[in-house]
Specification:
With 252 residues, this protein is of the alpha/beta class. The chain has 2 domains: 12-121; 153-251, type ii restriction endonuclease, domain 2, CATH 3.40.1560. The longest helix is centred in the middle third of the chain and has 43 residues, at 110-152. It is built from 8 helices and 5 strands; from the N terminus they run H-H-H-H-H-H-E-E-E-H-E-H-E.
Amino acid sequence: MLMDAENPLWPQWLAQGKLIAAIIDDAPGSAATVAETQQSILDKTGLDARTARRFERLYRFLASEYPEALNGKPLAAGSVAVAELAKLHDCSPSAARELATEVFTGTLPADGIRARLDEALAQSTASVRHRRLSTSRRVAEFERDAVERIRRNPELLGLGPVDELQVTPSGRPLMPDMVLLQQGLRIAVEVKAAGQQAPMHVVGGYLARLAQLLQRYDRAVLVLPSDCVELANLAHALQDEWAPSPIHVVCL
């Protein structure tokens, strides 16, 4: 590896990256000076714009994330290896830290870093998939459990005795989860597995759904998890804007 003549502890590409960063940082910000800056970089380094930009980014990455690697120790990593380390750092900073010493001493080539990056990407993808699956399961379990609890004991809704309860079969998304009949009134029940702190537009979506149901039913009930009391209070506060008649919110 070609080391820098003025700083023999650094490879030439890294010294060039530092020089390019300094040229860019010292240049005025006007558009008229862009061509002059590029020409200055070419004159002082002999690098084309793409390579110069890559070396600058890699230098800034090391200065920001691994400043200790630039102070007083020989750095024998090639630019390709550091580029792969930067990708790994974006995916898993802890995994990158584990390999950093081997990378900087030149004992771990780019292919070895790339293999670890592939593992980190696979783990990250699996983790995201697991979280999404877990969330979907929690939503389905709450909604299924809430419907069953209300079916066994409709008075959990706080509406008093009901004359009849109908659970909507699956595959009918426009229908409410349940319909209650009470003294001639038809009451729609919608179950939502909301989080404790749902964004305002999500709450608005729930209320818009209830407003839609109130076009066909006499009353509408929103059922939320037991830890969503604040969300229920917010729904009540916004009901005048979204629902044409009073709604009923229950936390189970």
